[in-house]
Every structure is written in structure tokens, then in C-alpha cells.
Amino acid sequence: MNDKSQQSVANSLEAEQNLLPYMPYLLQDLWAFGSSVNQILDLIGTLPLSSDSTKVLDLGCGKGAVSIRIASKLRFDVVGVDAMSEFLKDAQRKSSEYQVSDLCCFIERDILTYVTNEHNFDIVILASLGGIFGSNKKTIENLRTQIRPGGYMIIDDGYLKKREVLSRKGYEHYRNYEKTVQELTFFNDRLFTEISTTEVSRKTNDEYLKVIDNRCMKLISQYPELEKDIKNYLDLQREECDIINSELEGMIWVLKKAAA
Ligand SMILES: C[S@@+](CC[C@H](N)C(=O)[O-])C[C@H]1O[C@@H](n2cnc3c(N)ncnc32)[C@H](O)[C@@H]1O
Question: How many Cβ atoms are within 10 Å of 62's Cβ, its own excluded?
């Protein structure tokens, strides 16, 4: 992984780059990293698509929690792209466990370069990657290049409940509801469905924190020299949960790409 990809992965996991080698250990008890898997699955289940021909792209798929559940429940073909090889190994293992390895293909690549080539998927998913492409408008501009006209873009992210902007690193793309929708529909795509994830993700985040806290303590006892960095990482995780709870409304947006 080059330095730019490493930085992007570290940002998406709210970690400093020097902790990246330890992230597979710290996140070993989690399958999904912050996305609302069941809600994404339910929403996709309502789309008018048939199981024998639908192709899905899951950008930043992590350990494949979303990809594999889609393949398993809906029998869609799924391509998951992520830069962390350790996460993809877990995704591969899980796809065998769920008996969907024939439907799943996991690719180790930087998604910022992956999207520079156009693709013709029916659905593209961006779950819990925030503003990796920049603004919401930039996100949609990039996602649109990955699907056919009439295809669907699914974004698991959110909007600011009270403020106009947040200056915290990784949160610069957030806007209020109206501005977010304006940006997401800038290219005349239709906002097909939207659903709040706030309640579900609050529970998930609490669980996430407990699990990570436990692994962090174990890691500190193994590597006392990392104590400061690991505690800093834990503080960031707690801060992130607080911000999500107080400032953001979690949302899954489903957009239908305009016809050509
Ligand atoms: C917060 S996790 C979300 C994972 C997954 N979507 C899920 O919901 O479980 C962010 C993921 O994006 C990946 N990632 C971040 N930046 C990336 C990049 N530039 N290229 C590829 N993967 C990236 C990380 O490795 C990580 O697996």
C-alpha cells in the first residue's frame, strides 16, 4: 500500500498511520465497521432488481460484512474493493463460511484509483467512508461513474442536525439536510429512498467501543511502548461516538442515476 492509500485507510478508521499494522488485531471482533448492514440489506431488497443479473460494487468493503450479506440474502454478484489485505482475507474466509464465494470477488486496491475507470454495475455502495472523495457532490460524481444509467448509489453516512459545518478532520464534508440533498442530487439523479440510521448506529457504536476498548487494553499489555498512541486512538474513538451522537443524523441515501 502506498503512503496516500495508507493515510486514507488510517483516516477512515480514525487512527494514526503508525497504528495501521495493529488495526486487524484491534478490530478482530468486528465484522462491520460502523455501517448499518441490516438496513442497507433491507433497502436493497426493495429495489426492482433481479437476482440472476444484478452486479454490486462495495467500495471500501472492509471485511465484506455488507457484500457477503447481500450475496447471501439476495444472490447478487458482488465486487468488494479495499486497500487492507488483512481485511480482505477475512472477507474471503467469511464468504466461504456463508457459501457465497462464487458470488463474491474481493479486490485489493485503492478505491480512489479504482473509480478512475468507469464501470457498469447496477448498484454501488459507499458505507461508512464519509468524505473520502471530498464533498457530497464529489462523492456522487465519482459513484455515478461506476454504475449504468438507472443504477443505484447507496451511501451510508449522514448530515449535520444543527450546525452548518464541522471543522473536525474527516467531518468537513458534512452539511445540513437541505444542502446535503442538494449536493447529492446535483447531477439530476433521483433521491429514491432515505432512512435514518441514528438509533441503530447508536447501539452499534456503543458495542463497537466496548470491544475496541478491550482489545486496546490487551494490546497495551503486549506493547507497553504503544500505550500513548493506543490511548490516543481510544480517545478519538470515544470523541467520534460523541460527535456522531450529538451532531449527526445518520442516514442511508439511495439515489437512482438519471437515464443517459
Ligand atoms: C470504516 S471502514 C468501513 C468498512 C465497510 N464498508 C463496513 O461497513 O464494514 C472503512 C474501510 O475503507 C477502507 N479504505 C479507506 N480508504 C481506502 C482507500 N483509499 N482505498 C481502499 N480502501 C480504503 C479501509 O481499509 C476500511 O476497510
Answer: 28
